[in-house]
Amino acid sequence: MKKHNFSAGPCILPQEVMMKASEAVLDFNGSGLSLIEISHRSKDFVAVMENARSLALDHLGLKGKGYQALFLHGGASMQFLMVAYNLLEKKAGYLNTGTWSNNAIKEAKLFGDVVEVASSKDKGYNYIPKDFSVPNDLDYLHITSNNTIYGTQMKSFPKGNVPLICDMSSDIFSRQLDFSQFDLIYAGAQKNMGPAGTTLVVVKEDILGKVTRKIPSILNYQLQIEKESMFNTPAVFPIYVSMLTLEWLQNIGGIPAIEKINNKKAQLLYSEIDLNPMFKGYAKKEDRSIMNATFNLTENKLKEEFEGMCKEGGINGLNGHRSVGGYRASMYNALSLESVGVLVDIMSELERKG
Ligand SMILES: *Cc1c(COP(=O)(O)O)cnc(C)c1O
Global pTM? Predict the structure, then answer.
């Protein structure tokens, strides 16, 4: 039976992308060779890299605006330090909205002073802090647009006179935004774009080259740009699959089209959480994420029954992160409205039975 995959990451990818990716592993472009056994400098793979980089900028509306797209190693976690390595001279600001922000802060402290401009730690990170000011003397301000673990999402973004850096790992390509308000965006592929193993970095070139420290080659954005994202052997398979996903997104109408579906999915699930007395949401309503919905049972004694029903219905990956508990339904781009419908039906059946 096909599962309804609500996993937080690595996560569901479009079925047609899976089909094309598996074909390319056996025979890439009818070449008689596998995608994963040819040179990354071959004409065919260079075309993949160029296409993936170009599609990323296209979707974000950043073509011709001074940005470069890179596919790098090391996950979003590598960007926690790479951002600071390349951009932090004296002092950086961080908005603390959860585990991932904290990890980013920890790495940045190795390179300079870090000020937490605001934090939602006081309430278990169930909301997004809004009333804070951005000091003018920061090298940059770092934010996390979607907090995968807590199910909160930023709906508006701080305005300031310093470069804005955004960890967009779990909601990139999911909603329309003015992406030019960010100077650097990064995202581990495995949440909404492809398999684990590559990270998309979109950077405005004019913020680079300003720190005085020496930067190791592989961690240097400027060098990665110069080498067209092929300083060393790139993660050929994850990049290829990311390219296929970006093509899939383009074919269904791009971010505007997927945003409509994502909103429908989120509305369907959140209205069930709100109307069904068996469930309660975790995140503050106004800050709820359209990607990751966090919720719990109002009575723990229904746990076994609910989880049994989910299992029977083919629901996968619903367990909340260990730091929050309860449940988390991740509704990334490739998850269908139908899958959310199946979950919602189970939730309302639990109410009828209860
Ligand atoms: C998953 C996640 C990360 C960590 O990604 P890795 O690629 O595993 O390093 C960082 N930030 C956010 C918002 C995430 O959801």
Answer: 0.98
